[in-house]
């Protein structure tokens, strides 16, 4: 039995993400899909429940302890609740509204489903993940192995853009490029030198720079194209579902599943300490390739061999990451 919960399920990401979960064979007759939002979840749940796949779908709203009911017995909780960007905004500009939303939802999870795997999509991820962790610490239920910032969209974009450069979109789902650091602008560090499918020979540094920049600012590309109507929703739903499947498959015992995700480096002390040495800074959180298992994080992998250019990208990412992390931590630290 797996109970998966989507918090923010009626939104631009929440609806297609719930659809993907409802239609994936991994989410079987033994699965309950529980949808929570401050609006429209009964409608979304009724709609999805007519799809001829086995997962049972239920929708909850805030009245009558809706959040608690939605979360009771949850094993996987995915959080896309919160406001998206408009052109001209940074992800950090969302902190003012989203920090409080994520904090309140985290209190609900900490008190009702403290053992659940928590997958945080709401931006700014570099700060909202520390918020969830600090809430869990306050409630005495913090397990760094179980809280994940979802950075999969950066990985998905990297695969797609590399496949475009190789002139073969059919390769996109096979190409893997580790993307590390965090999830905003310069904190997004694609390790293109480790692409499973190397860039064309003679690919100039200038072109590597352009491709790196496109991956780092892929979110802005979508925000600009949507022209005030929000940010990535469909590609994010795809990426969120992909990451959730990995967490569920690993929880069910499948071995060797590795995915980049933004985690507290205490999740694997040995790997985390080694990573801190590699990045040259004692950061509490970082997105790195993480091996997943039945209890969540099994191992935080080393970044491996990286180019001088990538090493500079990491150096540039670290100060902003440190600021973002501290902002999330200190939002909870005072008695709130
Ligand atoms: P949206 O506005 O379409 O949907 C957000 C949903 O959250 C709405 O349905 C809203 O009612 C709900 N909500 C608001 N407050 C809530 C609360 N207290 N409890 C439960 N639900 C609540 O926005 P969206 O496009 O779906 O984006 C959601 C978030 O995801 C944004 O913060 C966005 O920046 C982020 N995002 C992250 C990534 C990533 O890669 N991690 C990618 C895309 C978007
Ligand atoms: C993304 O990368 O698309 C998301 O983080 C949304 C955004 O604000 O860019």
From TrEMBL:
GO terms for molecular function: L-malate dehydrogenase (NAD+) activity. The active site is at 183 (proton acceptor). InterPro entries: L-lactate/malate_DH (IPR001557), Lactate/malate_DH_C (IPR022383), Lactate/malate_DH_N (IPR001236), Lactate_DH/Glyco_Ohase_4_C (IPR015955), Malate_DH_AS (IPR001252), Malate_DH_type1 (IPR010097), NAD(P)-bd_dom_sf (IPR036291). It comes from the Eukaryota. Residues 3-149 form the Lactate/malate dehydrogenase N-terminal domain. Keywords: NAD, Oxidoreductase, Tricarboxylic acid cycle. Pfam families: Ldh_1_C, Ldh_1_N. Gene3D superfamilies: Lactate dehydrogenase/glycoside hydrolase, family 4, C-terminal (3.90.110.10), NAD(P)-binding Rossmann-like Domain (3.40.50.720). Its EC number is 1.1.1.37. GO terms for biological process: malate metabolic process; tricarboxylic acid cycle. Substrate binds at residues 85, 91, 123, 157. Residues 151-331 form the Lactate/malate dehydrogenase C-terminal domain. PROSITE patterns: MDH. Homodimer. Belongs to the LDH/MDH superfamily. MDH type 1 family. This is Malate dehydrogenase. It comes from Trametes cubensis.
């Amino acid at each position: 039995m797996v109970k998966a919960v989507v918090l923010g399920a009626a939104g631009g990401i929440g609806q297609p993400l719930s659809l993907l979960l409802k239609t994936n064979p991994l989410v079987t007759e033994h699965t309950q899909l529980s949808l929570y939002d401050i609006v429209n979840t009964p409608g979304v749940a009724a709609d999805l429940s007519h799809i001829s796949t086995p997962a049972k779908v239920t929708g909850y709203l805030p009245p009558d302890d809706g959040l608690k009911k939605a979360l009771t017995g949850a094993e996987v909780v995915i959080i896309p609740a919160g406001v998206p960007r408009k052109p001209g905004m940074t992800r950090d500009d969302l902190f003012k509204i989203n920090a409080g939303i994520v904090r309140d939802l985290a209190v609900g999870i900490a008190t009702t489903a403290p053992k659940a795997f928590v997958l945080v999509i709401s931006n700014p991820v570099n700060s909202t993940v520390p918020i969830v962790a600090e809430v869990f610490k306050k409630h005495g239920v913090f397990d760094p192995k179980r809280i994940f910032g979802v950075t999969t969209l950066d990985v998905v974009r990297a695969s797609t853009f590399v496949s475009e450069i190789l002139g073969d979109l059919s390769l996109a789902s096979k190409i893997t490029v580790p993307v590390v650091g965090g999830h905003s602008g310069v904190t997004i560090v694609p390790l293109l030198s480790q692409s499973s499918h190397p860039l064309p020979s003679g690919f100039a540094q200038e072109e590597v720079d352009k491709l790196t920049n496109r991956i780092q600012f892929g979110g802005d590309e979508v925000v600009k194209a949507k022209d005030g109507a929000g940010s990535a929703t469909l590609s994010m739903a795809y990426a969120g579902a992909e990451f959730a499947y990995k967490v569920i498959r690993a929880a069910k015992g499948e071995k060797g599943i590795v995915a980049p995700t933004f985690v507290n480096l205490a999740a694997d002390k040995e790997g985390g300490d080694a990573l801190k040495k590699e990045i040259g800074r004692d950061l509490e959180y970082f997105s790195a390739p993480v091996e997943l298992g039945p209890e969540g994080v099994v191992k935080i992998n080393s970044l491996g061999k990286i180019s001088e250019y990538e090493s500079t990208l990491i150096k540039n990412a670290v100060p902003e990451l440190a600021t973002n992390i501290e902002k999330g931590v200190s939002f909870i630290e005072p008695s709130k």
